[in-house]
Amino acid sequence: MQVHNVTGGAGSRLHVREWGKDDAPPILFIHGWSQNHLCWRSQYESPLADEFRLVTLDLRGHGMSDAPLQAEQYSDGDKWADDVAAIIDQLGLDRPIIVGWSYGGFVTLDYVRKHGQSKIAGINFVGAAVVFGEDAFPYFGPAFLENAPAACEADLPTNIAAIRKFLRALVVKPISADDFEVALAFNMVVHPQVRSFLIQRELDFTPILERIEVPVLVTHGRSDTAVLPAMADLIREHCKTAEASWYEGVGHASFLEEPERFNRELARFAKKANG
User: Fold this and answer.
1) Where's the AB hydrolase-1 domain (predicted)?
2) Within 10 Å of residue 122's Cβ, how many Cβ atoms?
3) Which domains does the chain possess?
């Protein structure tokens, strides 16, 4: 494992870690709202590291990356785009597959909107969101809608209770107590104001989806109550290169609930996308 400090958009310092072989095809994992690079543990501690260069980051405002408390650090899509571009350029990633989970879908599409597709080989949208705002609420379920407001409250007991409920609602298949404890810990590292800043954006990336030419894999749990399966259908409707992999009886975290299948499909997609 290697640790990098990458200078991202507007000079923000990003905490980045990588596993695997330096000369292998790269995969860049982008986590979701209030999460952390540790959510990908079932990927970087798997045989994927024997075949690929696995790169994870803590998004701005999360984990060990810089977490400024100014709204413009999170409302400006160019900053998210430049964060991803900085990792690709400063680490010398040769046409990575981008894996964007949940809010990571927005970050991925911010990058594509500003920097194009020439430096990436493909995209894996995992329970990913591509629209947000009042008109987009039909694409979100109670796991998010009922818990996100309280998770943005400064009152610590309210905050903790909301995050506990949120994390339990993200999964359908049981996960280990260890995985839950780690997730609870890294969620609580995120300042509630940062959580609030992230969900104040009004977003519609469907026009960007229509311009995508690289291969796209849409991975979605049929029982996802955070980002509803209708969001995956929306991606497929607007992205001509998209193919879907549906997980029956799985919630919002397919890579944690069914990691062996997820890793196998990701490996197959990465190899195909890299020709």
Assistant:
1) 25-259
2) 22
3) 2-273 (3.40.50.1820)
